[in-house]
Amino acid sequence: MNWDQIEGQWKQFKGNARMQWGKLTDDDMDRIQGNREILAGRIQEEYGVTKEEAHRQIEEWAKGQQSM
Q1: Other CB atoms closer than 10 Å to residue 43's CB: what's the count?
Q2: Is the N or the C terminus of the chain less surrounded, counting Cβ atoms within 10 Å?
Q3: CA–CA separation, 31 vs 50, rounded Å?
Q4: What distance in Å separates the CA atoms of residue 23 and residue 65, rounded to the nearest whole number?
Q5: Each residue of 10-32: pLDDT tens digit?
């Protein structure tokens, strides 16, 4: 699924994102509002990973959303 679709339907996807990245709070998800860069930044901060790793995780997660 492309990110524009996820961003446009963030309310439907944020629960799945919260399950994927459990350290992120509901408030984080509300602030992210489907913005990929903000999501990557929060993943970096909470999980101590590089920007590249955060984007890789997001890409893998987004691919998995196609089957939903």
Answers
A1: 25
A2: C
A3: 21
A4: 20
A5: 999 999 999 999 999 999 999 99
Amino acid in the structure at residue 11:
K
Q: What is the dihedral of CA 46, 52, 32, 1, to 10 degrees?
A: -130
Structural domain span for residue 63: 3-67
Mean pLDDT of the chain: 93
Q: 26: which 2 tokens?
A: 């509901």
Amino acid at site 27: D
Angle between helices 36-47 and 51-64 in degrees, nearest 10: 120
Contacts of 21-29 with C-beta under 8 Å, sequence gap 24+, read 21/46, 21/47, 21/57, 23/47
Where does the pLDDT of residue 8 fall: very low under 50, low under 70, confident under 90, or very high at 90 and above?
very high
